[in-house]
């Protein structure tokens, strides 16, 4: 049997959305795409995982998709906590400001 007559061996490949999910989630943890990257990582990870489980003969990368989902949730929770902290700090700072003495100017005729 020559090399051209050998049957080619098919190997499942990592689902592209699983890789996209992981990259978006990492960008969501960094200050590059804080909320958008995390949400995108969660959504693409769920889609990739669903397709990988449905077609295990074609796709691999369930762990990569799962990592993208987990990192996406962590990034989203951290972003929401940071926003709440900033809003809470602004409200606290705003209510603690005491008005200063009022300067009255009188004009004599």
Describe this entry's structure for a reader:
This protein has 109 residues and is mainly alpha-helical. The protein has one domain (13-95). The protein contains three helices and two strands. A two-stranded parallel ribbon has the order 1-2. The longest helix is centred in the C-terminal third of the chain and has 34 residues, at 62-95. It is rod-shaped and about 110 Å long. The model has no long low-confidence stretch (mean pLDDT 88).
Strand line-up of the largest beta sheet: 1-2
What's the structural domain tally?
1
Mean pLDDT: 88
Order of helices and strands: EHHEH
Distance between the termini: 117 Å
Q: How would you sum up the global shape?
A: rod-shaped
**Percent helix:** 55-70%
Major sheet size, sense and barrel closure? 2 strands, parallel
| Cα-atom radius of gyration | 27 Å
Low-confidence stretches: none
Number of helices: 3
Keywords:
single chain, 109 residues, two-stranded parallel sheet, mainly alpha, 3 helices, rod-shaped
